[in-house]
Amino acid sequence: MTQVLFIEDNEYLCKIVPYTLKQDGIQCLAVNSASEGLRAAREQQFDIVVTDINMPGMNGLELISKLREAKNYKDTPILCLTTEIDPATLAEAKARGAQEVVSKPYTPQELLAAIQQQLAG
To answer: How does 11-47 read in b/e, with b if 16+ C-beta sit within 10 Å?
Structure first.
């Protein structure tokens, strides 16, 4: 079963996204901060990481860099979900190792399709 780490400071999304993904047979651990996400990634190997960019404390860009420093996350797909529209920030997310950026608002189908596309390689 596919294991997704979902990192988002919006509590509603932390509840609805795992529920939505579960409907498609995907297991999802949702945490609401980058530091919690980093801790979870150190404790367990996930097939894909989905993270917000703008979060209090450590942001998603810093998280991506820290994940890419870990040997077991060098090649793990990382998706960013964000309201960010600044082209420089979006480019930085990709430069740090995110494969794709999904803009908010998004539909559950868009998120699922992005996850499936990354896992398909």
So the answer is: eebbeebbebbeeeebebbbbbbbebbbebbeeeebb
